[in-house]
Design a protein that fits this description.
5 helices; mainly alpha; de novo design (two linked rop proteins); elongated; about 130 residues
């Protein structure tokens, strides 16, 4: 299927295009950043904290995308809350990696986590009140 056909299918089924959402874009940026951060983690953490952080980071935009593909605001809100849970998990793991000396504290990472959290909650509040 070509892109224009996919866009038409999305319009007909009343899907929200997740790629147009700022929250999805910022969460993708955060996932990319976390892959970069965890590259320097010790090899002994490959299946531990590195894997956990990467999976949590990927879970945030993935759940936003899945929720946006659903047909109701209620379902989207449910997936936004799952994304928020994954984001909180990632934040905790990031803070632990700092405490363990695996990485230095980076305000860019922390600011992006806060920004994504605000965007998730803002979209949730908008959907609840519409």
């Amino acid at each position: 299927m070509v892109r224009s056909e996919l866009l038409e299918v999305n319009r007909k089924r009343n899907y929200m295009n997740h790629k147009d959402l700022d929250v999805w874009k910022k969460s993708m940026e955060l996932a990319e950043l976390m892959y970069s951060v965890t590259k320097s983690f010790p090899e002994s953490e490959r299946y531990g904290l590195t894997s956990q952080m990467r999976r949590a980071a990927v879970s945030v935009p993935s759940n936003i995308a899945e929720g946006a593909a659903r047909q109701s605001d209620k379902e989207l809100i449910q997936f936004l809350m799952i994304a928020l849970g994954s984001l909180s998990e990632l934040e905790t793991q990031y803070l632990l990696s700092i405490r363990l000396g695996m990485t230095a504290e980076d305000n860019k990472v922390l600011d992006l986590i806060i920004n994504v959290k605000k965007l998730i909650l803002g979209l949730r509040n908008y959907l609840r009140n519409k």
